[in-house]
Amino acid sequence: MNKLPKEKRNQLILAVLGTLLVMAALWFTLIRHQQDGLQRLRSQKADVESKLSRIRNTIQNSTQIQAELIVVSNKLQVQEADMASGDLYLWMVDSIRKFKLSHTVDIPQFTPGRGAEDVSLLPNFPYKQVAVTVVGTAYYHDLGNFIADFENQYPSARILNLDLAPASVQASGAWEKLSFRMDIVSLVKPEPPH
Asked: Which is more confident, 174 or 132?
């Protein structure tokens, strides 16, 4: 470059600078814009592939999910079979009378509740509840067995507000008996849609 005349050397430097400016302009206007677009497309492609992977997993697991749904639905039907249905007061009285046959508990008095009402324990619960007040006498141990067995056999029912007092009738050997009063609350089986 030292052998070139000064005018030619300046022209060559200007040509190189012009070429560099044109290349820089091309880079920042066209190529950089294309690279940014390609990067956006890569990230969109990754998002779509991730969604597609989740959809494929859901489709592959759909038979398993459907089988689990059938199992859970069957369990629910079994549990609903022990819930009060039809004439609620009659169902409750019949269930308690049948159940007490295997226990030495005397239950002469049943008092109906207000009928089917919303569950008071959990808000927005899909089932209703019915309550019956029961009054009777039993020995402490027999009453405890009755309550435990009842709640185990009827998982959709609970015994609430248990009041115990010494029995007022003092027959021979009955001085250890207790008088009790309790509420038996049961979930109501929903009626099938028409």
From this structure: 132
User: Long-range contact list for 46-52, CB < 8 A, 24+ apart?
Assistant: none
What's the pLDDT tens digit per position in 163-186?
988 877 655 556 778 889 999 888
Tokens of 126: 């899909």
In the structure, what pLDDT confidence band is assigned to residue 193 with cuts at 50, 70 and 90?
A: low
Q: Which residue has the tokens 């497309």?
A: 41
**How far is it, in rounded angstroms, from Cα 160 to Cα 120?**
12
Average pLDDT along the chain: 84
Separation between Cα atoms, residue 26 and residue 33, nearest integer Å: 10
Ramachandran category for residue 167: left, alpha or beta (phi over 0 → left; psi -120 to 50 → alpha):
beta
Smallest Cα–Cα separation from 137: which of 178, 170, 186? Answer: 178
Contacts of 34 (CB under 8 A, 6+ apart): none
Q: Is 86 left (phi over 0), alpha (psi -120 to 50) or beta?
A: left
Total-model pTM? 0.59
With tokens 């629910």, the residue in question is 76
Q: What is the mean pLDDT of residues 132-140?
A: 91
Element (H, E) at 154: none
